[in-house]
Amino acid sequence: MSVLLHQPAVLLFTFVLIILFPLADAFIYARLQTALHVYLWNILSLWTLTLIAIALLYRDGFTLAQFGQNLGVYPRNILTVVGVVILIVAVILLNKLQRRKMTPEQYAKQIENIRKLIPTTPAERLAVIPLAFTAGFCEEFLYRGYLLNIAASATKSLWVGLLISSVFFGFAHLYQGRKAIISTSIGGLVFGLIFLASRSLVPGQFLHTAMDLTQLLALSKKSRFQ
After folding, report:
1. Which residue in 58, 75, 77, 76 sits closest to 67, CA to CA?
2. CA distance 5 to 7
3. Is residue 73 helix, strand or coil?
4. Is the Cβ–Cβ distance between 171 and 42 less than 8 Å?
5. C-alpha closest to that of 138 among 7, 48, 33
6. Closest listed residue to residue 201, CA positions, set 86, 15, 71
7. 172 DSSP assignment
8. Which residues of the chain have pLDDT under 50?
9. Among 29, 59, 87, 219, which residue is least crowded by beta carbons within 10 Å?
10. Cβ–Cβ < 8 Å for 141, 55
11. How far apart are CA 177 and CA 142, in angstroms?
């Protein structure tokens, strides 16, 4: 994979992914007015970045399987999937318990930076499904499959690559505010460990999609009773 580090197009794309895209995303998010517009922007931008990354990899003779888009190594993948399912259930239960304890003021403060992401109409709640799938598939491929491997190749360390990709995954959520950068960086570490444990992006993509879908629908349900 070190050959990719000598490709100007790859270096330019990586700079766009880790610096320019988060800044542009925050700028555009602040100016979008509805959840549907936010969803459309996220879906189009993430798939565009993903398809460009795939094209660059194939151009240099690599396959998606080499960057984690495969079923992993048996029995690691089976054990990881079981762990992911347990983690999903734990996250859902923890979120429900946490939201029950919130006052309306605490809830309003928590969702302040993501209010435009919360679906409030039937059409928006339906659109959450492709949005969650896009985030789950594309973000895991871009930040775990692509960036983690590129950073690991550049630093000669898988663990440094994991740290770098997690930090920039957090920075990609700049539009949600500074606290979100920290929390999503930690989430990036968890997703990265899932990827390294299973040697596959699929468990993390499944977890990422399920978490985004359940959280947004839960926030939507709660907002209707505020």
Report:
1. 58
2. 6
3. coil
4. no
5. 48
6. 71
7. T
8. none
9. 59
10. no
11. 21
Burial class of residue 208, CB neighbours in 10 A (0-12, 13-18, 19+): buried
Write out the two tokens for 168: 């920039």
Tokens of 149: 């491997």
pLDDT, tens digit, for every residue of 193-204? 989 988 899 989
What is the Cα–Cα distance from 185 to 187, expressed in whole angstroms? 5
- 140/200 Cα distance (integer angstroms): 10
The gap between the terminal CA atoms of the chain, to the nearest Å, is 51
Query: What single-letter amino acid sits at 203?
Result: P
Instruction: Give the DSSP letter string of 80-117.
Output: HHHHHHHHHHHHHHHHHHHHHT--HHHHHHHTGGGGGG
Tell me what pLDDT residue 55 has. Answer: 97
Structure tokens at 118: 């919360």
Considering only CA atoms, which of 181, 216, 175, 174 is closest in space to residue 30?
175
